[in-house]
Fold:
Amino acid sequence: MSPVQTRLESLEQLRLRLREFVAERDWEQFHSPKNLAMALAVECAELVELFQWLTEEQSAGLDAGRRARAEAELADILVYLVRIADRLDVDLLEAASRKLGENSRKYPAARVRGKALKYDEYD
Amino acid sequence: MSPVQTRLESLEQLRLRLREFVAERDWEQFHSPKNLAMALAVECAELVELFQWLTEEQSAGLDAGRRARAEAELADILVYLVRIADRLDVDLLEAASRKLGENSRKYPAARVRGKALKYDEYD
Amino acid sequence: MSPVQTRLESLEQLRLRLREFVAERDWEQFHSPKNLAMALAVECAELVELFQWLTEEQSAGLDAGRRARAEAELADILVYLVRIADRLDVDLLEAASRKLGENSRKYPAARVRGKALKYDEYD
Amino acid sequence: MSPVQTRLESLEQLRLRLREFVAERDWEQFHSPKNLAMALAVECAELVELFQWLTEEQSAGLDAGRRARAEAELADILVYLVRIADRLDVDLLEAASRKLGENSRKYPAARVRGKALKYDEYD
Structure:
C-alpha cells in the first residue's frame, strides 16, 4: 500500500489536479469523451472481476488484499468519472442532487419498500 | 430537465443522503458490494452507449439532448460509486489521492509525454 | 416473441448473413473494431442488468418474461461478437479451440477442483 | 501463440466440451447465470481496453501482438456466452435467427441507409 499523499479535500480539487496531470503529459488528445467513457467502463469491469466468483456475503467481507484492490479500482473509477465530467462541463454534485430528487419521486418509499424493481415495473 | 434540488456540497454529504435514501426503502438487502458493482458497470455501459456510434469529435460536441442524457448517466455512476465505497468503508478522496501519487511515479511526464501506453509498455 | 426465422445453421452462415445486413444499410462505416467492441460491451451490460438485483438462485430460475429478455440479449451479444471477429479476421471456433487447450493446461482438474481462483493464485 | 487444438466444428460441440471442462473441475457451483453474466462483461471490457486509446482507424489495423490479444479475448467471450446460454437453455443460433428477423423489420434498408440511430430515433 502506498503512502497517502496529501489528501485531496473535494471533487473540485481533484478535477483541477487531474487537469494538471493530463496537461503535463500532453494527454488531452486521448481524452475525448468517447475514449474516457471506454476507460471508465474498463475500470468498472476490473471492480466487477473482484466479485464475480464470490457470493454476496463474501463480497461484503473482503480480506485485506482484495479490499486494497477494490479501493484502487474505486479510485480509478472516480478519476475517470471526474475527467469525463470535466470534458463535458458537467457539475457532478449538481447532477447527483438533481438525480436524487428524481429518484425520490420515481421511487416513493411507501410504494417500493423492500422491493427491487425498475420504476415502471411497480404496479 | 428537472429542477435542481438544493445542491449537495460534498461527497460526504452525498454519502449520508444516499444512506438515508436506501434505509427509507429497506434496500440495504440488495446493496451487497457484488450487486452494486454490477449496477455501476451497467450505468457505465449506458454512458458508453451514448458514444458508441459517434466519432471522437462528435463525442466532444454533444447536442443538448445527448448532453442531458450524459449528465444523468454520470449522476447514476457517481451515486453507485459512492454507495459501494460506503459499503466497503473506502474514503474515495483519500483513495484518489493515493492513486494520483502512484500514477505520478508510474508515468513521469518527461517519459510519457504524448504517448498512450500502459506503464509496462514504455521502453 | 417473434416467429423464428429459418434457423441459421452455423456461425459461418451467421457471419455471411450479417455482412449482407450491414452492406445493405451502408453501416460498414460505423463498424470499426473499436465501435463494435463498445457495442458488444453495452449488450453484455444489458444482460448483467437483468441479474443485478437477483440472487444467484433466482438467476437460475427466471420467469418467462425475463428469460425471453435474456435470450434477446444473448442474441445481440452473439451478433456483435461475430461482426467484430469478422472485421478482425478471427475464426471464432478456432480461437475457442486454442483457448480451451490453454485453459486445460492452466487449470489442471486435479489442482483446481471446486476452487474459483485465477491461475496465478493457486499455490 | 499456442498450437491450435483440434478445431471444434460447431457451437454445439463447444457447448458439450465446455460442460465436460466445468464438470471435471466441479465448477458448476460457480456458474450461476448471474456470475457468468459478470464474467462475460469482464471479458468484453478486456477487449474494449485494447481499443480505448486507439483511433477507429488504428483499431482496424492492429499489429500482430494486439491482434493475438484480441483473438484471445474474443475466445473468452465466446466461451462464457456459450456457457450462459447453456445454463439458460437458450439455442444461440435460433435466438440470433429470430433477432435478425426483428432487426430487418425495425431497420428497413431504404430508411436507415448510412445512418446510425436507434430504431425509435428515425423520423
The longest helix of chain A spans residues 64-87.
